Every structure is written in structure tokens, then in C-alpha cells.
Amino acid sequence: MMDPVTPRELARLFDSTHQLLKLYHHKNKWPQIYPLLTNLAERYYLIYQACPKGLQAQLSLYVPDHGYTTNLVVNQCVLACVLCRALNYNQAISEQIIATCLANYLCVQSQSNKLACAQTLTTQDKKLWQCRHQLAVKLLHASGPMTLSVQHILARLNKYKQALLSAPKTMIYDGATTLVALANIIAMNITYRQTGEHISLHKALADIYLRTPNEFAQKAIKSFIAHTGSYLPASEVNYAEQSLIYLATDDRARHILVDVSRPEKVRWHRVKATLSTFEKQRACDDNRLLYTVWFSDNINFAHPEDIAKSQRQKYLNLISQLKISKEYSFSALNKLLSPFPELILQLTLAVKPYNKEHQRAKDLRHCLSMVGYDNAPAIIQKVLFQRLVATISHPLEQHLVKRLENIAVIIQAFFKHSTIQQFEQVTLPLYAYCVFLCEKHATALSRKTLFAPAELNNVSAPLACLFGVKAIDQIPLSEYLMQLLGDNPWTGYLLNSEQKEKQQLGSEEKHWIAIKLFAYYVFQPNAVFSSWQEQIMAQSLNLVGWQSKADFYSYLETCEFADNF
Predict the structure, then answer these.
(1) Which of these ranges, 44-48, 61-65, 165-169, 209-213, has the smallest mean pLDDT?
(2) Is 229 left (phi over 0), alpha (psi -120 to 50) or beta?
(3) Can you give the pTM of this predicted structure?
(4) Helix (H, G, I), strand (E, B) or coil at 277
(5) Residue 140: CB partners within 8 Å, gap ≥ 6?
(6) Best exposed site among 335, 351, 391, 412 by fewest CB in 10 Å?
């Protein structure tokens, strides 16, 4: 646990960041770098949650005692905090991005300081600068395999920085790397230099927004501005012929300004006016402005509720209340769903496949008459899970949503000839599994499709491999899925398919393995399956009414799959 967030803790961020950057020169301390890195990333994250204005203010203020590179890294970490909060990323993802920002200049503090002062680099300096990310990866590697996610981002960073600023458009897919590159570009533009070549934050944001062809980066910049507002904390303001400092805007649209011209006292003002601010970063050695004023009760507003998180919990509670084996009346379902008009709207669209004309339903009663009360709970749960996935913010959210949609298409195709199985019931554990991965394995998710023929393996690879997660602890997964969907038999079949040895598998459990293998085929058409996997695929297709694998593959070619980013 970190100490309570205080002005002292805010000041310690600079000291700790400075000390971390010095560890490169002590090879015997390299194994300590990653633990220190993760601890410091956590402190940045928690301090931002507790005192966002205090950290945002550091983008206006340059601390001369710590030199250019330390200020640059602090700025980059603060920008990462703001971007992650603006995009509603969870703590694990945020800390991964912040940790990578901290690692960005691990090996080149001296060279970065020289470049800021327009000093000539030696041949050795140039070599170090060009290889800085490879060197950082080497340092992190000394701390063990837990550093892999940060290493992967660092390895892509230069390519992503170039892609963000290049035209024509260069395709880049990893959101976490994009945010680190974005924070680095902005930090380099705004960090104070004595030559005056730096620019204001809003100008830096506008410049890259107009210049970049990357839509994800543009969305992140818009979210950044919406989150921080029009004025940057600690900006200088000329108001009523006085030089004041902007701190925040209260819930009555009054700007809170302070006069720090007198060392013995801070004078506070609340005004309603359009402000003209000077927000280029400037040197500051006033600890009141750097650290202290941000903890005053005058700007200690209640933080807004995390609406997405609150809504997600309500959806999870509703999923737990709905049981697919229970008989429901219209009044019972209407009572459950009436607090969620957005769900009813989605439900009117979700029932389109249940009528020949593919028309949407008019209202909830019309929905239920179209699908029948027996089928309704599973369809409602599916809509709930789709909404749940939509409320989970992740750097790879587009990829995850499209991959989920494509696996659902494969499941629907698999059961095309089966008249006894409602396909929505089968997809429900798939959605719950994905939500679990987003909540518990957010930093491990990737665009990779992990696959091996596994001729010798007695247990099938987990569904998580389709989302780039190599290993998963089955105990918390089982508890999570059974708590939400324990009454759905396909939940148990999915879990058993990943835990039972192949000699013990039932036909429904083999169906899940076959579905996963067909997903591998769709995502990796050149995949070569083992004889055991081929046997399961053939048996399962036969049991659900397909004549052959060739027929099924031909049908898959006619299905509409979402572009898999």
C-alpha cells in the first residue's frame, strides 16, 4: 500500500522518477528496475485518481532541480494518466502504459539532456540513442518474464511514432503502443526548454490531431480534451490587471484562481469570465504551486461517478437474476427490464432473425411474441453481454468485439442444422468468458491467435488462446462463469472442454473444442490440425447434422464475418 496522497507524495514522484532513470548506470541494480517501475506506475495511477488537477498542473510547470529528461518523463507519465482516465481504462492497463512511459528513457537520460540543450552527441551517444529501446528491453529482461508486455510496446514504439505523424496512412493496431507514442510526442513538444522551442499543450494536441491519419489517436485526443476541459491547471491568467494562476472550475462554472505573488500568503479568487491563459510550460520553484494548493478544500470536488462501471455492475446483477430454465411471464420480464430502456431497444433488433422478413420488433411484448418465452431469457442475456462488452474500455476493444462477433457467427453456422439447440444459449458462456478476460487479464489480451496442433496434449487449449492469452487460471474462471451462468449447461461444457482429458470428454464438450478449432481455421486458414483434432471436428459436425467438413467450410465462406482488425 502506498502512503496517503499528500503534497509530499506528489513531490516524491519527481524524486522517484529521477532515481529510476539513474539506475542504468548501475548494472548490479538492473534486476530492481522492473519492481521499481511497476511500483512507481501504480503511484502515478493512484495519485491521479485522488488528485487529477494536481498531476495535470505538472504539464504547466517545469521543476528546474530535476533537469530536462526527468521533467519530460514526468510529463509523459501524466499525459498517459490523463489519456487512460479519459478513455476509462482500468488500473492494470493504465499502469502498463505508464510503466512503458517510465521505461522510454531508461538508458539515455544524458543523451536526452544534451539534445534538449542543442549539444552535439558523440558517436557513442548516437549509438545509444538509436538503440535506446532495445537497451531498455535488455534491462527489463534482466527482471524476468513479467516484463514482456512492456518490452513488446517498447519494441514497436519508434514505428508507431512514425506512423502517427506520417501520410499516407500506415496501419497500426495496438492501442496501448499508440497511446505511449502519443504521450511521448506530446511530451516532447510541451516540455520546457530554455530556447523557448516548446509549445502549449492545446497547440500540441491540435497539431497532432490535424496531422495524424490515425483514428484511434484522434479519438484519444478528443477524449483527453473532454476530460480536462478548456483550461490547463496552473496556467497563467491575466485578470483584472493581475497575474493569477488558474486552478480549476467549480460546479457553478466559476473559475478558481490564486495569487501567489506574495511568499507569505496565497490569495484565492472565484470568477465568472472567459479567461485568456498562457499555458506553455514554465520553470517554477514555488512548492505551493507545484504541490500544496492542489490539496486545498477549495478545489477538493467530489469525483464524478464512473458511470460505465456502475452500469456494468447493474448488467451483471441482471444476468445473474435471469435463468434460462425458468418460466417467465410478460409482467415478470417487463419488471426486470423496464429500468433498462436501452436493453429493450437492443432486444427489438436482436430478434430480427426470428421472423422471415427480418423486421425489428415494436416493443418488448412484440419481442416476446416473436421468439417465445422459452427462448427469451437466453436472447436477453446475450444482449446484456453485448452491452457489457461495449462498456468495457480496452486498447484493443475494436478487435475484441469483432473477434467475438466472428466466433458467434461460427457457432451459429455450426448449429445451422440442429433443431434442438438454441444457438444463443451456446454463445452466452463465450461472452462471459470474454468479459472475464477483459476484467482479469486485460494486459495479456492481444491480437495474436495462439495455436499449436497439440498432438500429445491430453487437454484442449483454452478459449483464451483465441484472444492472445496463453495461460489462464481455471479456478477463478470457473467461479466467475458459474456465478453468472451456472444454470446454462453450455457453461459447464465449455469449462470441462478445457479441464478434462480427451478420453473423458462428452459430445457437447467436444462441440466446444470443435468450435474453437473452426475459429482457428477462420483466423488462421493455414493452421494444420492434429489427427485427434481432425477426428473431433468430423465427429461433432456429424452429430449436429453436417454431411462433411468440406460442406461446412463451403458454408463458412458464405458467412458475413466482420473485418478482423
Answers:
(1) 165-169
(2) left
(3) 0.91
(4) strand
(5) 33, 34, 37, 103, 147, 150, 151, 154
(6) 335
Distance of CA 476 to the CA centre of its chain: 21
Is the separation of the CB atoms in 293 and 247 below 8 Å?
yes
Residue 132 to residue 110: CA distance in whole angstroms: 12
φ/ψ of 268, rounded to 5, equals -105, 145
> Residue 104: which of 146, 139, 52, 54 has the closest Cα?
139
Torsion (CA) 221, 222, 225, 227 in degrees, nearest 10: -110
Q: How far is CA 241 from CA 237, 415, 442, in A?
A: 10, 75, 51
| Residue 248 phi, psi dihedral angles, 5° rounding | -165, 175
Q: Using pLDDT thresholds of 50, 70 and 90, give the confidence band for residue 422.
A: confident
Q: What is the pLDDT of residues 459-485, one digit of tens each?
A: 888 999 999 998 889 999 999 999 999
What pLDDT, in 10s, does the model give residues 9-46? 999 999 999 999 998 888 888 888 888 999 999 999 99
Non-local CB neighbours of 290 within 8 Å, separated by 6+ positions: 10, 11, 57, 58, 61, 63, 284
d(CA 429, CA 436): 10
Nearest CA to 308 among 386, 393, 198?
393
CB neighbour list of residue 259: distance below 8 Å, 6 or more residues apart: 242, 243, 244, 245, 266, 267, 269
pLDDT, mean of residues 409-433: 89
CB distance 259 to 265 below 8 Å: no
As given in the structure block, the three cell numbers for residue 5 are 496522497
